[in-house]
Structures are given as structure tokens and as C-alpha cells.
Design a protein that fits this description.
The complex is a heterodimer of chains A (455) and B (161). With 455 residues, chain A is of the alpha/beta class. Chain A contains 20 helices and 18 strands. In chain A, the strands form 6 sheets. In chain A, strands 2-1-3-4-5 form a 5-stranded parallel beta sheet, sandwiched between helices. The chains are: A alpha/beta (455), B alpha/beta (161). The complex binds adenosine-5'-triphosphate, magnesium ion and zinc ion (2 copies).
Chain lengths: 455, 161
């Protein structure tokens, strides 16, 4: 260990403080004895501790009250409650309220020794775990995107390979799958990364507005055009332009766009003067453009211009292995933003998250997690928080396996069965995808009486 | 067995420490005896260590085998729980002396500033029962030996082979 583990002793009796301190000092700990809850709270603000030994009966603030206060801002700090007047009731209460252990004074030297060693070991493992998980998450991170999914990893590779060229790229994916993040990653990997990345949403504007947004206009080009305004293509010069929802643009703009792609020049509205632009075009759509072409809504020639390389982002329901990873990252992000310290999602809540079909994909998952973290009263998000966050549409999203009023158990059973089936009953893989440990999976298999005959 | 390169003087024995007796616990408060030893320590000696047959406690623990002033002048060791008889077994003088020796080295180690050791064979390993004492050796691990040598150097006492 880098430095000595640090222990705070809180007891109003001097004799306890000194005798316990001297004994723990011999054990090589850094010991700070204080005589009241109030002083303890003050001391906690000055430095960090690995363990608190707190007397139950103290005048003014008693041990349980102190522990409650401490848990508010240091939920992970282990607290041992000690008392000379142990009763089963207070013991149960102490443990329920989060005490690591409850010890009778005087202590058996072996017992206290072992208890403290156990806590220190556990803390070290937890630290190590947090570190390892962060390292692991880094492996699955590409710019702001996280994924363990094989297809996504291939996309990341593809981006690295094509980013440095200027080829036009079409990103296809359902809403909320991360099209914009992919576009940003492409830009960030490109030689243009220090130049602007300009996103344009092609749905939100009328044809004329979008046209002037894209190409700009001269002064007096139309009523209200009191000054010359540069368009997004000009703004993106030497950088990248991200044309979001390209499937929604009008036939006229499709033609204009095709011309820009071919000539690498734009013409402002109200002008005839072509202006050369050096812009990398990245387009995105959640539509099936093939179908749109067949229906005559989208120009085939423009499609081929845009679609030099297509990136097809799988929907979230096709990469359930990413749900625990994304959940973890999202929790950490919201913790940082709100100062909360939520640790994880309970197993049954995770089962629900993995069962759900996520029509809104990662954006929807993000909303659910954000709201759940805010609602969470403990450091673990349970079904109580996750459930209400789905809003009214939860049933629409539950996968095909079930009807709208299926019970949670039934949903869980169906989901586990399908994961097991998809993985040839490989317990380790299935457990990993489900985000539970193998023992839990075995217990669920037993509980739902699942067998290979469910194949 | 390790020995320290320091001559030992045996002081005449003293009265039973009645002042430290706790009638409720029927044990002796080790810190009080330690304080007595500290007070009678003479600077002509490097350290003073007491040996007693009575059972020792500190208020927060049910018993202790001994107590030392960490990086201080004095220590005390009790033989009460080191005897086989205490556990209803046949007396074993050799075993008793061995245990006593280990605990003396251990508490002396504390007076030289050493703290407990994770290595189960090191004499600075914390043993809360005689099985633990019997398991450890009467020697210091490499790390603790180095610490001890450094401390003795500070006190200008050569620790050579
Ligand atoms: N792989 C990922 N890792 C982490 N966060 C992601 C990932 N993919 C998407 N997100 C997050 O999900 C949300 C939606 O992403 P984004 O806006 O890129 O999706 P989109 O496909 O452009 O959606 P829409 O079609 O609705 O425009 C964002 O908050 C984004 O940060
Ligand atoms: Mg988008
Ligand atoms: Zn050692
Ligand atoms: Zn010791």
C-alpha cells in the first residue's frame, strides 16, 4: 500500500480512544481519535479516511446519527459501530443503516484484527476493480463512442482508414444510434480536425430557408436579406459539413447539392458567381434511401455521389452487450454532472434494460439513465427508478417475445431463454451479455426451470 | 533465534501491580503497569521491559499479550496466556520460554518503532493467540531487520554479525 491506511476513532470515553489508538498504531495504521460526532464531521472534511470506528452511545450526536450524516457525503466509507451495551435491536439497526460491522466492547483482539483486515482488503480490491474497469472501458472507446460490439469495432476501424481521405460518407442508422457522434469521430480522425465541423439538420427548415442556410445569400436576395450571409458550406471551408437527415431534402435541393458535390463550388442565393469550397461531406439518414429511390423521392445520382462509403450503425437492440457498458458510462457522466454517486443498476433493472427494444436507441437509453440517476435514493438504481423512466411507451418497446401485459418475470424468462439460445447455452457468454454473474444465471435457469429442451 | 547486540541487566523483581487490578474484569490494566515501568526507567538503559505473570488487558480489548510504547522507552509482556496450563494442557516449560522470548522481541521491536508485519514468520507479525505465536519465528524479516538496524544506527549501537 502506498501510504498507511487511516482510521478515525470516535468515542466520548478517553480511555477507549487512547487504548484503541495505541493498539492500532502498533498495527501500522494512521489513527486519529476524536471525542464527538461534531468533531468527527469536521475532521472528515480535512482528510480522507479508510475506516471509522464509532461508539454507539455518545452525548449529543450518537453513533447511528453520526453514521447517517457521514453516509450522506461519504457513502463508501466503512463504519464499524462499537458499544458496551449491545442489543440485537441496535445491532440490526446499525447494519441496516449501513454499518460494516457491529462490535461489542471490549473487543476480542482477533475479531477486531480480522474485521479491519477484511475491510482494508475489500477496499483495495474495489479500488483495483474501478481501475480495471476504467482501463477496460478505454479499450471500447472511440472518441465519444463506446461499444464492444463487433460491427461497431469494425466501423471504428473503417473510420480510421477512410477519415484521412476526402471521400464522401453516408451514415445510416435509426434515430439515436449515434450518427452524429460517428460523423464527429470521422472529422476528428481526419486531417481537417482543426478546421470547423458544421452540422446542418436538413429536416427542421423549409426549402428556402435550408437553401440559404446551406449556400448563403447576397444582400437583397430576397425580402429580409438585409446583409450578405455566408452559408454553411462556406463556413465549413477546409473542414467537414455534416448533412443530417439528408433523406428529407426537396428535389430542388437534391439537384443543387449534386452540383456542389460535382463542381466543388457553391453559388449564394441572389448571385451567379460560383465560389470554390473545399469541404468534406458527411451525410446521414435514418431512412432507407434505396426505397426512397424506388419511390422516386430521392435522386439516384445524388445517392451514388454521397454513398461512396456507407456506414451502417446497428440499432441498440442488436447489440445488447453494449447496454451494461453504455449504462456504466452514462451513470458516471450523470454522477459527474449532478454530484451524485450512483454505482450501478440492480440486476433486475438491468434485465429490463436488456429486454427492452429501445426504439429510440442510445438517446432513449441516455434519457432513462439520466432520469433514473436523478431519482435514485441509494447508490444503486433499482426497478423502482428505471420503471417510471420509460414513460407510457414501455410496452411498445418490449421485444417480440411477449405481449403487452407480460409480467416482469415472464419478460426476464423470455429474455434469458433467447440469450441462452443465441449463444448455444454457453453460460459464461450468456451471463456476460446479460450482465449478471454465472451463479446468478444458474439460479435464474433453475428458477424458471429452463432447460436445453427450450432450445 | 535473533538476539540484539545489547547487554541485558535483570532488575530485582517488584511487588505485584495491585494498583492496576480491575476487580470487574479480574485482570490487570496493562497501560497502568507500562506507565509505572516508564517512570522507573533509568537513562543508563536503552529500554526497560517488564515481565509479569498476571493477565493483562486494555479497556477496549478482552486481553493483550503485551504492550509497548511505540518508538518509546518501555514495554511489558505477560506470561499468563503463554502457558499451556492456561488452556488446560500439560505444562511445557520449553514452549513457554520460546513464546515469552518471541513476545519480548515483538514488544521490543515496537519500542524501536517497528509496526506489525504481514509476513507470518516475522516476529513482528501480530499474533492474537498462541497458535499464531508458535507459527512465527523469533526472527525479524529482512525488511524489519533493516528498519531495526537503521534505528540502532541512529542510536549509535552497532548491529553486526
Ligand atoms: N456509441 C455511443 N457511445 C456513447 N454514447 C452514444 C453512442 N452513440 C450515441 N450516443 C449518445 O446517444 C445520443 C444520440 O446520439 P446521436 O445524436 O449521435 O444520434 P443520431 O443517430 O444522430 O440521432 P438522430 O437520428 O435522432 O439524430 C447522444 O447523446 C450521444 O452522445
Ligand atoms: Mg442526429
Ligand atoms: Zn516483518
Ligand atoms: Zn504488536
Amino acid at each position: 500500500m502506498a501510504s498507511k491506511p487511516s482510521i478515525m476513532i470516535v468515542d466520548d470515553e478517553e480511555i477507549v480512544r487512547t487504548s484503541l489508538s495505541s493498539w492500532l498504531l502498533e498495527d501500522g495504521y494512521d489513527v486519529v481519535p476524536v471525542e464527538s460526532g461534531k468533531l468527527a464531521l469536521e475532521a472528515l472534511k480535512k482528510k480522507s479516511y479508510d475506516l471509522m470506528l464509532v461508539d454507539l452511545k455518545m452525548p449529543e450526536m450518537d453513533g447511528l446519527e453520526l453514521m447517517k450524516e457521514v453516509k450522506k457525503f461519504l457513502p463508501d466509507l466503512p463504519v464499524i459501530i462499537m458499544t458496551a451495551y449491545a442489543t440485537v435491536d441496535t445491532a440490526v439497526k446499525a447494519i441496516k443503516e449501513g454499518a460494516f460491522d457491529y462490535l461489542m466492547k471490549p473487543f476480542d483482539p482477533e475479531e477486531i484484527s480480522i474485521t479491519i483486515k477484511k475491510i482494508m482488503k475489500q477496499q483495495m480490491l474495489e479500488q483495483e476493480n474501478i481501475y480495471l474497469r476504467k482501463e477496460l472501458a478505454k479499450q471500447f472507446q472511440f472518441h465519444q463512442l463506446y461499444s464492444k460490439n463487433k460491427k461497431m469495432q469494425e466501423i471504428f476501424e473503417l473510420i480510421k482508414n477512410v477519415a484521412k481521405t476526402d471521400v464522401t460518407i453516408l451514415i445510416h442508422g435509426e434515430t439515436g444510434t449515434g450518427k452524429e457522434l460517428i460523423a464527429r469521430a470521422l472529422h476528428a480522425e481526419s486531417l481537417r480536425k482543426d478546421r470547423p465541423f458544421v452540422p446542418v439538420s436538413c429536416t427542421s427548415l423549409t426549402e428556402t430557408l435550408l437553401e440559404s442556410e446551406l449556400f448563403g445569400h447576397e444582400k437583397g436576395a430576397f425580402t429580409g436579406a438585409s446583409t450578405m450571409v455566408k452559408g454553411m458550406f462556406e463556413m465549413a471551408d477546409k473542414g467537414s459539413i455534416f448533412l443530417d437527415e439528408i433523406g428529407d431534402i426537396s428535389p430542388k435541393l437534391q439537384m443543387d447539392l449534386l452540383r456542389v458535390l460535382e463542381t466543388k463550388e457553391i453559388v449564394r442565393i441572389g448571385s451567379t458567381q460560383p465560389i470554390p469550397v473545399d469541404v468534406r461531406v458527411i451525410a446521414a439518414t435514418n431512412r432507407d434511401l434505396g426505397k426512397a429511390i424506388a419511390n422516386g423521392i430521392f435522386r439516384e445520382d445524388l445517392y451514388y455521389r454521397l454513398n461512396v462509403i456507407t456506414i451502417d450503425i446497428p440499432p441498440l437492440r442488436e447489440k445488447p452487450e453494449d447496454i451494461p457498458l453504455l449504462t456504466e458510462q452514462l451513470i458516471e457522466k450523470v454522477n459527474r454532472e449532478t454530484g451524485k454517486s450512483v454505482k450501478r443498476v440492480s440486476q433486475d433493472a438491468m434485465a429490463l434494460l436488456m429486454q427492452y427494444r429501445w426504439p429510440g436507441n442510445i438517446r432513449e437509453l441516455k434519457n432513462v439513465i439520466e432520469r433514473s440517476v436523478v431519482l435514485a435514493k441509494e447508490d444503486i438504481i433499482t426497478l423502482n427508478e428505471v420503471g417510471p423512466c420509460f414513460g407510457r411507451n414501455v410496452k411498445d418497446g418490449i421485444s417480440s417475445g411477449g405481449s403487452a401485459d407480460m409480467s416482469l418475470d415472464q419478460m426476464e424468462k423470455n429474455h434469458i431463454t433467447s440469450v441462452l439460445k443465441n449463444n448455444n447455452w454457453n453460460i459464461s457468454t450468456s451471463a456476460q451479455i446479460l450482465g449478471i454473474d454465472r451463479t446468478t444465471l444458474y439460479n435464474k435457469i433453475r428458477k424458471y426451470n429452463l432447460g436445453e429442451d427450450n432450445k | 533465534m535473533d538476539t540484539l547486540p545489547i547487554p541485558v541487566r535483570v532488575l530485582p523483581s517488584i511487588e505485584s501491580p495491585v494498583y492496576a487490578f480491575d476487580p470487574d474484569r479480574k485482570q490487570y490494566y496493562s497501560t497502568k503497569i507500562l506507565r509505572y515501568i516508564v517512570n522507573s526507567h533509568s537513562d543508563s538503559a536503552l529500554r526497560t521491559i517488564g515481565i509479569t505473570a498476571v493477565d493483562l488487558f486494555i479497556p477496549i480489548l478482552t486481553y493483550v499479550f503485551g504492550e509497548a510504547q511505540l518508538d518509546g522507552k518501555a514495554a511489558i509482556v505477560s506470561g499468563a496466556r503463554l502457558k499451556q496450563e492456561y488452556y488446560g494442557l500439560k505444562p511445557d516449560k520449553r514452549l513457554y520460554v520460546e513464546r515469552l522470548f518471541k513476545e519480548l522481541m515483538h514488544e521490543l521491536g515496537h519500542t524501536f518503532g517497528l509496526t506489525h508485519c504481514d509476513l507470518s514468520y516475522c516476529v513482528m507479525h501480530l499474533s492474537n493467540n498462541v497458535t499464531g505465536i508458535d507459527k512465527k519465528t523469533a526472527t525479524f524479516c529482512e525488511n524489519h531487520r533493516d528498519q531495526l538496524i537503521n534505528k540502532l544506527k541512529e542510536l549509535e549501537i552497532p548491529y553486526g554479525k
